[in-house]
Amino acid sequence: MPHPFKSIALIGNARDERVAECMLSLARHLGGRGLRPLIDHRQATIFDSGTVLECPEHSFAERCDLIISIGGDGTLLYAASLVARTAVPLLGINRGRLGFLTDVGPASMLEDLDSVLGGEYTQDRRSLIAARLQCEGAPSVQSLALNDVVINKRETGRMMELETSINGRFVNSHGGDGLVIATATGSTAYALSCGGPIVEPDLDVWVLAPISPHTLSDRPIVVRASSKILVRIADRHESHAQVTCDGTALGDMGTGDSLHVERSDAQITLLHPPGYDYYRLLRSKLHWGRGAGGATPDE
Q1: Could you tell me which of 77, 141, 147, 230 has the fewest CB atoms within 10 Å of its CB?
Q2: What is the mean pLDDT of the chain?
Q3: How far is the CA of 84 from the CAs of 12, 48, 101, 280, 299, in angstroms?
Q4: From the candidates 73, 112, 177, 257, which is the catalytic residue?
């Protein structure tokens, strides 16, 4: 059966030798199938002339039917920002550390790519979160996130206090270093290191996880993804924070400013080759269930 992907783009940091090796191998493999992948001009210098098509990354979503992300989850998050309001799917090749989103390994990537091109894959729709930062005397700024929206304190050695409301009702004052508002997808990212739970990606919930809370009773909570969240810095503290969406700065936040977080209509689609198992992925990345021999029972 002919595959639906007539134009494919590769995203990765070619300055990383491991990433460059994978990108070259993928380009050769796609060339053998009569496809010349799109490559941003900053990465194109490693390829032989005529093997790729140069195209600015910001135009990938308009030019391609599939984006292959090579690197870690950060690279895939960047790719997701390019296609957030389109139907272009993403396939992640893991050349990073953990790689909860990039589940294809370099050893099997050509075989898995052939499966995807042959129409053998699972589509995994992931919801995005929308953040809007309103600062006094300035226009609001907004962005989308696949993993999380994070409020981090700017001053070192000083506690910050945030006031959080959900659907117009006051919830808590969080004294500490900040707050993570994570999607189910992002529950295995920053929120996990803050003591938050691991959430199945298809559950329609968010995690609110305080960063280094001042009191042990300030614990992560799980809320509906339809919630409207408002975060402010307490008036009695002259503190400043930085707001980031998937690690990219949205803006600085001070007393009197407000951060509004709610569901976005935008989604992204991840493609998984045959055999994808979320719990197997968790076992592999978090080293669960390993006995004395280092293997899990089903390996």
Answers
A1: 141
A2: 92
A3: 18, 31, 15, 27, 36
A4: 73
